[in-house]
Amino acid sequence: MSAPRILIFLGPPGSGKGTQAKMMAERLGLPHISLGDLLREEVKKDSPIGRRAKESMNAGKLVPDELTIELTRQRISRPDCRPGFIIDGFPRSAAQAEALDRMLAEKKLDLEAVVYFRVSEEETVKRLLGRAQLEGRADDNIESIRTRFEVYEKTTSPLIDHYRSLGKLAEIDAARSIEAISRDLARL
Ligand code: ADP
User: Fold this and answer.
1) Which long-range contacts (C-beta less than 8 Å, at least 24 apart) are formed by 18-27?
2) Centre of ligand 1 from the C-alpha of residue 89, in Å
3) Which sequence spans correspond to the domains of the chain?
């Protein structure tokens, strides 16, 4: 059996990483793990995790690291992740990156690559406001979008240099069409 393929998709809110992660996962026959989706399911179920996460999510702040770390730990331990997985929306902080490193080391798994979606704030805000009208997501309003950007700049974007220095970073110009980006990704 070939080595499990473990890919992280990293980028600002609205960079399209969720859309591409889903498409690529289907193409490779791997599960797509979206922390945003997992959290929204918990909120919908009104579970203890969901109840703790809801307020931060609507405000565009990160939910406590321990919650996303625990959700990730459970999810990647399921048998469908044995051939590998694509994870988007995690890690989003240094503590989460360290936790993921430890989880992978425990399972003797290697991270294949971190795909970084590079795009300007201006472009993504436009996309997010468009999505707000289409889907009515509770956190797609202008205040929450601004907060998500600040959080991304301050807490998540330092991970770009971290993974670059490990030689794991693959950069994608995410200001282009869905098709153009997915063609690039297919060549990875
Ligand atoms: P976006 O990338 O557009 O911000 P997501 O669906 O990935 O949307 O995430 C929505 C919200 O879920 C985030 O604003 C945050 O509140 C919460 N969230 C998702 N992933 C994490 C994470 N790894 N750590 C903490 N909070 C998270």
Assistant:
1) 18/88, 18/89, 19/178, 20/115, 20/117, 20/178, 20/181, 20/182, 20/185, 21/86, 21/87, 21/88, 23/182, 23/185, 24/86, 24/182, 24/185, 24/186, 25/85, 25/86, 27/186
2) 6
3) 5-187
Q: What CATH number should be reported for the domain whose range is 5-187?
A: 3.40.50.300
Nearest-atom index, ligand 1, CA of 90: 23
pLDDT of residue 1: 64
Residue range 141-169, pLDDT digits in tens: 888 998 999 999 999 999 999 999 999 99
Residue bearing the CA closest to ligand 1, atom 14: 60
pLDDT tens by residue, 29-46:
999 999 999 999 999 999
* Distance from the alpha carbon of residue 17 to the mean position of ligand 1, in angstroms: 12
